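By way of example, what follows is a protein record of this kind.
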Amino acid sequence: MILFAVYFYVRYGVSYRDLEEIMAERGVTVDHATLNRWVVEYSPATARVAQKRKANTAESWRMDETYVKVRGEWVYLYRAVDRDGQTLDFMLSAKRDTVAAKKFFANALYHNGIPKRITIDKSRSNAAGIKEVNKIFKWLQIPVKIDTIKSKYLNNIVEQDHRFINRRTRSMLGFKSFVSAAATLAGIEAANMIRKGQLGHSTNGFRQIPELAG
């Protein structure tokens, strides 16, 4: 029941009070504050399992950032998809700089392996982040170099993919804390992977969400 409630919230455009009413109509009494705690607690765990179980992705990546409001301030959601639009990785960051880009790429490489190329926009910090990763490869004597492609046109795939995330967060009218934002966004990303069929042929999240909880 808890996981179904969490999935319903991160997948569809409902508020916590709307979800409270929906649950009550089905004989489950739970207040909106408790629903919020469930989302913050269980979303990151389901996203971690989704990362491990998702199907293999292509070696050509598209990377970009979108924006989310936390306590009235804009923060940055780093995201990457492959050439086919399959979700690779995501990371919420208070800053948009080389340090954040390097951290994002390190996480993405850990979860998805080393790509042949990464397409970005004209962001200098993202280009610098990839350059730093290549320096580490060279220092470790790993005979690999990730090619960087700067192309607004090729990056349309990830920009289009932002729409699912932005549409869901827009109805939330911002987050009260960075921790709750990161947790909720992890759940939204997991729901997006399910929607794309990355965790199997079925796109029915209500069937797949219990499996993600282990």
